[in-house]
Fold this sequence. Notes:
- By secondary structure, the protein is mostly helical.
- The protein has one domain: Urease accessory protein UreF (Orthogonal Bundle).
- Helices cover 66% and strands 0% of the residues.
- The radius of gyration is 20 Å and the shape is globular.
- It starts with 17 loop residues before the first helix and ends in a 10-residue tail after the last helix.
Amino acid sequence: MLMTTNSVEPAGPRAMSEAEAAALYRLMTWLSPAFPVGAFAYSSGIEWAVEAGDIADAATLRDWLAAMLTDGAGFCDAVFVVQTHRAVASHDDAALRDIAELAAAFVPSRERQLETTTQGRAFIETSRAAWSCEGLDEVIAACGGPIVYPVAVGLVSAAHGIPLEPALHAFLHAVVSNWISAGARLVPLGQTDSQRVLAQLEAEVAATAKRAVAASLDDLGSATFRADLASLRHETQYTRLFRS
């Protein structure tokens, strides 16, 4: 007796929708080193850490950045991206204003304030000029004051209807990549070692994004005291390549 079975062809890969392709294109543009926010001019205190001997090679750079990412500015900025995106998506202007105000105050030094507000302003101005969309001007105005970099990214991404998690991962990748770029110029490191550090931080980036998505503003906090001191001491460093 012959037995027949109904074979089911495996489903092929799903093609990206037009909205998904547009979101990817915009994220790759906005969070690229080529996007003109001036990130190359800032080191987030890494320049002082190199001079002090805290960072001397790829391994110590990786350890320093892992701490900044998971227990310092990286996590806090990720929370601000998340909370901003949700406030814009839910049309909660009051919450957006409070988040923008808190984020602008949540920096440990004058130079970090300069860094995040300058990049935030550049991100807003460039995206509004080249990538404007309906409602963008209104949510920018709702912030009511300076817009720091993570708030700018969350705000513009939400206004364009880009899902939160891809925007958050792209933001963290951009931040870590810029830190590594600064370290590579200062230590210095070769291109291969720089990419090794980026690869080694992949798990920390994913974990930080996951924590930030589940966090509230009450979970904000930093324990990277040495990095904060580096940011403070950079201001009086004798020779400097970077603005922070």
